[in-house]
Amino acid sequence: MFEESQGIHEAKFTTSLEGFPGGPDIFLIAVKFCYGVRVELTPRNIIMVYCAADYLGMTDAYGEENLLSKSESFFHKTILRNWKDCILALQSSDPVMPMAEKLHIISKCLNSLSMMVSTDPSLFGWPMMMYGSLQSPGGSILWNGINTGARIRSSESDWWFEDISYLNVLLFKRLIQTMEARGIRSENLAGAIMYYTRKYLPGLGRWQSGHSGKTMTVASFSLTPAAVDQRVLLESIEKLLPEKKGKSFCRFLLGLLRVALILGVNQTCKESLMRKIGMQLELATLDSLLIPTYSDSDTLYNTDCVEQMVHHFISSEPRITSFSPASFDLETSPLSGPLRKVAKLMDSYIAEVASDVNLKPGKIRSLAEALPESSRSLHDGLYRALDIYFKAHPWLSEKEKEQLCNIIDYQKLSIDACAHASQNERLPLRVVLQVLFFEQMQLRTALAGCLHVLDNENAPAGPITISSDMAGQIVQRDGWVAVVRENQVLKVDLERMRSRVGELEEEFTKMKQEMKKVSKTHSSLNSPRMVARRIGCKLLPRVSDAQADTVDSTAPTPRASVEQARSSYHSGHRKTFSLF
């Protein structure tokens, strides 16, 4: 540049280095290097010095071991092999980002970090956990330079979450994408994203639990937090979130949606969050769904968001996969379970928001009808929600109440719900009559089925076989099963009572016979002959007595024959008795 200015013939040469990477401080390092002054290359200035040397063209063609070759050697041999230095170098690359991108410096740092994350940390000796769990057996964690024998947690753990959280949003986003391309597990990437988001969106802490403590590393003590625009952060993070299922992940998404509504992010971001939540709505909890209204709406809760989530849940295909249960908080359920879970969750949600006096009847109806009829085996939850709504809105007309009650299938009410509804003064009279009618039908069907089953049980021949249709009619409702079982127990008890009464009757008959025998024996003991014998007298037998003795004795002895003859002799002469 000086040689080109010689034609101007000016006394002074003045020029401006437009866009010089790193500014005056980095230019001073280049000047000192040219004059032989010792310069120090550090992780915080290496990328800017590298870019400055390239900008100035300080190649080995103009001198051996020029600044470009020196900075390149230091970058590859020191920075890319050390976790902490690599993080520090990326953090200080903001002023020269376009030129660093052109020289592929940023991509090399990101690839190096991805490789270290996917490799056992003990192989490259960094980072050393200062405050971390030492529960894993074996290892190489250092304390004051001494090997403690405790192992650094494996690449599946979160030892690197804290360090990469010091990068700005752009670098963090690119690092996550690089790790994903390298094949890092999605649950680890989701954990890093959740950690980063919680750090720079403090509002998430209100709806998250168990994540207040931070794991500090040696590297993090020399790092400074990045300046982050929360709205830009949220819109960028949303694009990085994987389409996976997990209970903690679903709770995190719902908290993220709350913050998005507060910050007023673009509609695309909000729609994407609601779609991802809807795809795993069965894992949500009631308290996380109670999203307040942050706009000028009169209602307390944002029911529109919840309704859209339900529509996404219905329209989504079961293609979404789950996180590994061993490494992520997950609640698994059978394929038929999610729809029932969401129906139960929505019934509880409607009951919770029903007390809002500004909530319109049309919104209650749309929330209840968002799910198909087959999703609810019982309509007790819907009935409870409508009862709460009628109680909080006593000014509703009979027609509006009847329109809302039309969403209830009275045949799917349990016996307790029917009993409550039949005495509920808040329900329209027509609805109460319908409930009573179906209650009688249910009882009649249940009792008939119960008696049919018992008749089959009492049949003597063959095993009992009940058709599936009959069994379905008997136990079609949980509330009526209890009635059937109670009637079965009552009939069994009645049969036992009948058999017991029969036994008692038999015992009474036996006792009556014994009483007769005892009374007969007692009367024979009181006869005149027995009295005479007791007082030492002897009665002369009569003919009738002799004849009776002969009839009663089946095998008379010789003495009995003599006595008989003697009795007959005396009876022929006199019919008197003598006392001896």
TrEMBL record:
<protein>
    <recommendedName>
        <fullName>NPH3 domain-containing protein</fullName>
    </recommendedName>
</protein>
<feature type="coiled-coil region">
    <location>
        <begin position="487"/>
        <end position="521"/>
    </location>
</feature>
<dbReference type="Pfam" id="PF03000">
    <property type="entry name" value="NPH3"/>
</dbReference>
<feature type="compositionally biased region" description="Basic residues">
    <location>
        <begin position="571"/>
        <end position="580"/>
    </location>
</feature>
<comment type="pathway">
    <text>Protein modification; protein ubiquitination.</text>
</comment>
<dbReference type="InterPro" id="IPR043454">
    <property type="entry name" value="NPH3/RPT2-like"/>
</dbReference>
<dbReference type="InterPro" id="IPR027356">
    <property type="entry name" value="NPH3_dom"/>
</dbReference>
<keyword id="KW-0175">Coiled coil</keyword>
<comment type="similarity">
    <text>Belongs to the NPH3 family.</text>
</comment>
<feature type="domain" description="NPH3">
    <location>
        <begin position="158"/>
        <end position="442"/>
    </location>
</feature>
<keyword id="KW-0833">Ubl conjugation pathway</keyword>
<feature type="region of interest" description="Disordered">
    <location>
        <begin position="546"/>
        <end position="580"/>
    </location>
</feature>
<dbReference type="InterPro" id="IPR011333">
    <property type="entry name" value="SKP1/BTB/POZ_sf"/>
</dbReference>
